[in-house]
Amino acid sequence: MTIVTLQIDGKIVGAREGDTVLHAARSAGVDIPALCHLEGLTDVGSCRLCLVEVGDGKPMTPACVTAVAEGLDVRTDTERLRFHRRTVVELMFAAGNHACAVCVANGDCELQDAAVAVGMDHVGFEYQHKPLTVDVSHELFGVDHNRCILCTRCVRVCDEIEGARTWGVSGRGADARVATDLDQPWGDSPTCTSCGKCVMACPTGALFHRGDTVSGIDHRRDRLASLIAAREHKPWPV
Ligand code: SF4
Ligand code: SF4
Ligand code: FES
């Protein structure tokens, strides 16, 4: 294993070659807000919340898909980064319907946590208010597209950990939505195994257990984390 040495906010940090800047920073106790990243899943770098500045000229790059390199100079907490992170979160709140007080994920929501982390006290963009569907055709789960931030964590966990490949994304731009199989109701899905991993992976209240009440969802990410670790380390005898 090759170890590289880099600087994160002026602190000398060692990391394994091939690690991401996000992983190296978190291992060194430097927190960078992130939403589409979920430990154990392939990173896609889509939400842009984890932007950091690197090297000369300080270009901004998402820490979750930027590899560490010898001598890399990373800054995670500048005024420019704070401005962009707050803007990213505000845009998410403006794009969907995130009325936290009436959401199943109130109190267990990573978008809410991100808003607190970036110091968002208002939304400076016009709300889109485009009412989207809520699909409760599955006997155990529901999807409220109004709460979805299109992070694709459900898509990746269903593919990479469960192997069902039920979720995908249909449409483009403002019309993009997560979809089950060929965009039929979730309850009609011939591939869904009803394992619930997508609900565990969802950072917001977009995926929920039927019967969850306001503030009632328990994402059970600890269970998902142990499933992912078991896949990676294969502790069982073969
Ligand atoms: S319940 Fe399991 S199989 Fe069904 S969509 Fe969610 S992750 Fe995929
Ligand atoms: S349903 Fe949840 S996990 Fe899936 S893309 Fe939307 S916010 Fe992300
Ligand atoms: S967490 Fe890095 S881009 Fe979303």
Please, could you describe this protein's structure?
The protein has 238 residues and is α+β, with helices and mostly antiparallel strands. It folds into two domains: 75 residues, Roll (Ubiquitin-like (UB roll)), CATH 3.10.20.740; 135 residues, Alpha-Beta Plaits. 25% of the residues lie in helices and 16% in strands. Strands 2-1-5-3-4 form a five-stranded mixed β-sheet, with helices on both faces. The chain has a three-stranded antiparallel β-sheet with strand order 6-7-10. Strand 1 and strand 2 form a beta hairpin. It is globular, with a radius of gyration of 19 Å. It starts with a strand and ends in a 5-residue tail after the last helix. The model has no long low-confidence stretch (mean pLDDT 94). The structure holds iron/sulfur cluster (2 copies) and FE2/S2 (inorganic) cluster. Its main location: membrane. Its EC number is 1.12.1.3. Keywords: 2Fe-2S, 4Fe-4S, Iron, Iron-sulfur, Membrane, Metal-binding, NAD, Oxidoreductase, Translocase. Pfam families: Fer2_4 (PF13510), Fer4_Nqo3 (PF22117), NADH-G_4Fe-4S_3 (PF10588). It is found in: Membrane.
